[in-house]
Structures are given as C-alpha cells and as structure tokens.
Design a protein that fits this description.
- The protein is α/β, with parallel strands linked by helices.
- It is about 50% helix and about 15% strand.
- It has ten helices and six strands; from the N terminus they run E-H-E-H-E-H-E-H-E-H-E-H-H-H-H-H.
- The protein has helices spanning about 10-20, 35-45, 60-75, 90-95, 115-125, 130-140, 150-160, 165-170, 175-190, 200-210, and strands spanning about 1-5, 25-30, 50, 80-85, 100-105, 130.
- It has a six-stranded parallel beta sheet, with helices on both faces.
- Helix 5 links the parallel strand 5 and strand 6 (about 130).
- The radius of gyration is 17 Å and the shape is globular.
- It starts with a strand and ends with a helix.
Length: about 210
Amino acid sequence: MRIVIAEDNVLLREGLILLLEDVGHEIVAVVGSGPEIVPTLLEHRPDVAVLDVRLPPGFRDEGLRAAIEARKIMPGQPLLVLSQYVEESYAAELLGQGASGIGYLLKDRVGHIEEFQDALERVAAGGTALDPEVVSQLMSRRDPLDALSPREREVLGLMAQGLDNPTIATTLFITERSVSKHIGSILAKLNLPPSDSGHRRVLAVLAYLNA
C-alpha cells in the first residue's frame, strides 16, 4: 500500500516507517504539521494516511481537523487517526461524514503490531477500525442506547469496531446464531433497517451513534 504519515514525534514517526516498510508498504510522504496534511494527500492520493491528532503549530487537534477537511475535499479517502485521548466532538464529526475507510485508534494500539496492521488494512479496504475506548465514549453520549440490554450493548460495541459475526461470537463466547439474533434486535430497537452487508450494518450503526 502507498501510505502518507503525519506525525511530529521523531521516534514514533521513524518507528511507524520501519514497521510499515518492513511488511512491504511504501511510505510516499511524511509530514510533521497539520497544515501540510491536505495538500500532501491531494498530491499523492495514498491508499491510506496515518495521522496524529496533536500536531504543530498548536499541538491540539490539528491532525483531526485536517482529517475532517480532507474527507470533505476527498470523499472516501482512507484515514487512520492516532491519538493519546478521545476527542469526542471531532471524532463524532469525522465519523458523521461516513465511517467507510475511517479508523480512530489510541496510540497504545500501535504497540500491538498485528492489531495495528489489521486496522490499517481494514481502513485501506474501506472498512472501519475504532478503538474500543472510542466506541465506549461515543456510545455513552446516546440516551437511546438505554433501550438495549447489556449483551446487546456489547454486541453493538464490537460491531462498531468493525468485527464480523464469527469474531463477535468468539469474543463473547456465544454462537453465531445468537449474534445474529442480537443484531436483529439492536437494529429494530434503534430503528435501523436490517442489511445483508456486514459493512453497511456497521456504517448504519455508526451513523446513528453520530447523528
């Protein structure tokens, strides 16, 4: 894959480059500030971009705001955002534009190399990769979720992370048939139409959470 990296921390940036090049990816550009992100994405049109949230000049939320701007200018551009914390309002705005090809991970996940690579590939393919903590905080903002049972909330959280039914079943130690029943109940309670596509199902749930 062709990848753009936006990260000002030298150690993390070099670590990402080594990690990604070691598994065969091509780093087409590296930037260290928020204002550089959108022009660089427009120039290179990468398969996916890995963006830090806090970047110069303000070291606040430049990366996340650039991600939001990039998705408006380049709809569907795959972006994986890395952060030390969950910025709920901007995260909700980013996901509200459409969750296809969007990832939001806490930086601790980068240390789990297989998880990080899986998330990157999923996002590049147009999927969703949300950190469980991100999902938890976004879900806690929505009163309508009170209608869901504890188990349904667990299933919904795993759905929002982009996991498929077999993985959800394994994670929760239940059958795939039970997962399907829980999903049907969730969609009914949230007034979301059922879908034969697992990906569209995740997008529908995320769209609801960020409406």
